[in-house]
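Here is one chain, start to finish.
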Amino acid sequence: MKIVLNKCFGGFGLSHEAKMEIFKRKNIEVFPYINNFSYDSDDEYTRHTGQKLGSMDFIYYFKKDPKIDKVTGIYSEIDRLYGIADDSSFSSDSNRGDKDLVAVVEKLGSEASGPYASLKVVDIPDGAEWEISDYDGVETAHYGFQTGSI
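Its structure:
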């Protein structure tokens, strides 16, 4: 079985390109918007058209197309109007063996990694119980034992 791990200090994270490819493979249509967060007013969301992202830029993936380049509002209002796709499930430990995630990381290589990640596909024995541990973001898969607690 193949799973995806982060092998550098930082933490597991996918690039925008990798997320878009996974959504495509899962037949989920999304519309990426960059969040322009503000403490003083409603957030602005600007349609992502391929512009370079800064280290603090965060992309939300709307389920419905707003059909405009800029949307303003609080998160709950934006979610109610357009729906926000859950892209965080890609990084949960239990989904690291997802066939689409594995295929995208294998296809894109280093381009699949987010800004603070170095994602690698690793093999573990089929049918083995496994869990992921990390030290400052560097992950290790432990397998071949019965997981759980007593």
